[in-house]
Amino acid sequence: MGRVVHKYGGSSVADADGIKRVAQRIVATKKAGNDVVVVISAMGDTTDELMDLAQQVSPLPPPRELDMLLTSGERISAALLAMAIANLGYEARSFTGSQAGVITTSAHGNARIIDITPGRIEESLGEGHIAIVAGFQGVAQDTKDITTMGRGASDTTAVALAAALEADYCEIYTDVDGIFTADPRIVPAAQQIPKISYEEMLEMAACGAKVLHLRCVEYARRYNVPVHVRSSFSQKEGTWVVDAKELDQTMEQAIISGVVQDTKEAKITVVGVPDKPGEAARIFETVAGADTNIDMIVQNVSAVATNRTDISFTLPRADGARAMSALARMKDEVGYEQLLYDDQIGKVSVVGVGMRSHPGVSAKFFSALADAGVNIEMISTSEIRISVVVDENLVNAAVTAAHTAFDLDDEHTQAVVYGGTGR
Amino acid sequence: MGRVVHKYGGSSVADADGIKRVAQRIVATKKAGNDVVVVISAMGDTTDELMDLAQQVSPLPPPRELDMLLTSGERISAALLAMAIANLGYEARSFTGSQAGVITTSAHGNARIIDITPGRIEESLGEGHIAIVAGFQGVAQDTKDITTMGRGASDTTAVALAAALEADYCEIYTDVDGIFTADPRIVPAAQQIPKISYEEMLEMAACGAKVLHLRCVEYARRYNVPVHVRSSFSQKEGTWVVDAKELDQTMEQAIISGVVQDTKEAKITVVGVPDKPGEAARIFETVAGADTNIDMIVQNVSAVATNRTDISFTLPRADGARAMSALARMKDEVGYEQLLYDDQIGKVSVVGVGMRSHPGVSAKFFSALADAGVNIEMISTSEIRISVVVDENLVNAAVTAAHTAFDLDDEHTQAVVYGGTGR
């Protein structure tokens, strides 16, 4: 008998009809002979409505109480889903994150999973029930308070539960068909990826892809849980995120799996830093102390004449002001000449395990960008990813150029779009 | 330092403004130097709205899941109230029934309190917090499932918590000013009772008074918790429900404390029951087996000629059909002649510890009814209560007559109503 974990987001259960549709899909999976565990988000806009209520009584709600309030949303949808399943003739039990054994840190609003001890879930499955777990929540290990877990939490919980329950795989149901070779809204010729490796998905998530959260993919990779990302509004196969070993070796390995962009970053340049040991360290300690996440770093070779160098780095725009303040405060101490801030940038990345075994990927990428008139401001690479920082207004052109250059365009779409037989 | 438990119902916290008003009252109590624990119901119509959602996904929701769903309502109001209190500068913590240590049976929708172990509440009070407990809910001792506790549950929880925490008293905030000598909608001259004993309140609750639930009063009596029933919309003193010893002995003890009516009962008469040993027992076993609550019983002396007797009893109208079916099925076995059903009845009761020491109360009561043209169908008494069953259409006349006969009318109101100086 198989064992499967499903996860459904708020848009899948926006109303009573949505709940009933999801119940039917779950029951079909159970009927096929599987143990089924479901992680569910709050219905539609419930979380926003509860936040709104909170704002009405207090402009600065205490974090512990905000978590007590918000977790009601998932509790409601979990109970309703269990009822809908019972109505179809199958037994279901709903569980809060706490009851499901989701143990977390006590950082309210952004708690991390410490462990999952799903004893009651195992018991429920053993009795033949379908288990429904309220997503987005757990219980703090030290205080025993209810916690909510920040962005991507329900996806991460679903994968973590799948790992703890030794499930065969985890299905993340969302409102897109799967992971695409590029954002279809930018590149109409983008194609759905049938299978992608954990490492590639990690890079794509880190570089701007929004469908699966980084934490979720990291958990899947660590515990080797196959993840199937698919649409809750159709029966189509989605994208499987699996161990690289599972990728089809017989087929010609595509060099690049996909192109992603991130338009939420800003670039800070510290101009004229004295070229002395420790200066760069002091700069990055300062920025880290301001609780920001630095992404790409570029340090130019120091100019011989001046013995000074420029250091540029990128970070989330939301952290920009904070980092600038922190750096401005230590101007005299470091002795740099100037601070520049640019939030009109975008980061474009090509990702693919194939680039390990294929030389010339950078060359092809930079060449395609040049042909499209896109200037490269910064470059950063990993074994399976190449990222460039470009002018924000040229991001879409850069993505499109790279997608075509690496033969990712759907020829059929190309023919339709351009009225020809493809390039 | 005093220790007080407050309970607020749904109408007191119908919206954000209601929550903020309640928060201010709680903070005023805390400021006066008390430990404060609050039991709170769901906001306004929340419970009904959740029931409605449940009905949309399933016409027969499983009881466990219904409890998981409905308890979200109290969780939301408890968290919001804690936020509102924090906004006034005082620390508050909200707790589910489970977290507060409310241990119950596993009868979903109608669970009973087995025990209260409020360790986390004590801890919270010890840290100077105001503790908010979600009402209407607990955790089942055996299954550890969340349970809801049926009618009057939040009042009972508040009193039970007050007992477990050894609080000085429990204040039940509601939408009436207190307990009255009669329903003011029937008797405009009804007066608010300043103090009443547990036994009298028990009788009044059992005989139709709706402000405090029977279970709540029984708990208060058993653990000697003074209960103050008052309005959440004013600062007026309400009615104190206390041990009979606390009643003011120096004042002339009113013979009757109040008149109550119950118009939700029906009368069943089993006509012509053979006067043999065991027949009556068989009848009541049958009715009890149909899971009904019998109230008053009257058995006529058997007619010498026929050796048959008529047995009448009253029960809640909701149980009427069930009892009639059960009795009809055993007609041959018992051998009675006929079954009569009458739901056009009402029960009127006069309650007062004073009747122990004053003879002639029955005579005065029956005489007042006769003068008002009200025929008595059945009579039932306890040490401190006399109840009569009358035609439902004459209930109001009976209540009014008894109220006046026992000098309970507010003379001022009487003067205003009748334009004279009172009777």
UniProtKB/TrEMBL annotation, chains A, B:
<comment type="pathway">
    <text>Amino-acid biosynthesis; L-threonine biosynthesis; L-threonine from L-aspartate: step 1/5.</text>
</comment>
<keyword id="KW-0028">Amino-acid biosynthesis</keyword>
<feature type="domain" description="ACT">
    <location>
        <begin position="268"/>
        <end position="344"/>
    </location>
</feature>
<keyword id="KW-0220">Diaminopimelate biosynthesis</keyword>
<comment type="similarity">
    <text>Belongs to the aspartokinase family.</text>
</comment>
<dbReference type="InterPro" id="IPR001048">
    <property type="entry name" value="Asp/Glu/Uridylate_kinase"/>
</dbReference>
<dbReference type="Pfam" id="PF00696">
    <property type="entry name" value="AA_kinase"/>
</dbReference>
<dbReference type="InterPro" id="IPR054352">
    <property type="entry name" value="ACT_Aspartokinase"/>
</dbReference>
<dbReference type="InterPro" id="IPR036393">
    <property type="entry name" value="AceGlu_kinase-like_sf"/>
</dbReference>
<dbReference type="InterPro" id="IPR005260">
    <property type="entry name" value="Asp_kin_monofn"/>
</dbReference>
<dbReference type="InterPro" id="IPR045865">
    <property type="entry name" value="ACT-like_dom_sf"/>
</dbReference>
<dbReference type="InterPro" id="IPR002912">
    <property type="entry name" value="ACT_dom"/>
</dbReference>
<comment type="function">
    <text>Catalyzes the phosphorylation of the beta-carboxyl group of aspartic acid with ATP to yield 4-phospho-L-aspartate, which is involved in the branched biosynthetic pathway leading to the biosynthesis of amino acids lysine, threonine, isoleucine and methionine.</text>
</comment>
<comment type="pathway">
    <text>Amino-acid biosynthesis; L-lysine biosynthesis via DAP pathway; (S)-tetrahydrodipicolinate from L-aspartate: step 1/4.</text>
</comment>
<protein>
    <recommendedName>
        <fullName>Aspartokinase</fullName>
        <ecNumber>2.7.2.4</ecNumber>
    </recommendedName>
</protein>
<keyword id="KW-0418">Kinase</keyword>
<dbReference type="InterPro" id="IPR041740">
    <property type="entry name" value="AKii-LysC-BS"/>
</dbReference>
<dbReference type="Pfam" id="PF22468">
    <property type="entry name" value="ACT_9"/>
</dbReference>
<keyword id="KW-0547">Nucleotide-binding</keyword>
<keyword id="KW-0808">Transferase</keyword>
<feature type="domain" description="ACT">
    <location>
        <begin position="350"/>
        <end position="419"/>
    </location>
</feature>
<dbReference type="InterPro" id="IPR018042">
    <property type="entry name" value="Aspartate_kinase_CS"/>
</dbReference>
<keyword id="KW-0457">Lysine biosynthesis</keyword>
<keyword id="KW-0067">ATP-binding</keyword>
<dbReference type="GO" id="GO:0016301">
    <property type="term" value="F:kinase activity"/>
</dbReference>
<dbReference type="InterPro" id="IPR001341">
    <property type="entry name" value="Asp_kinase"/>
</dbReference>
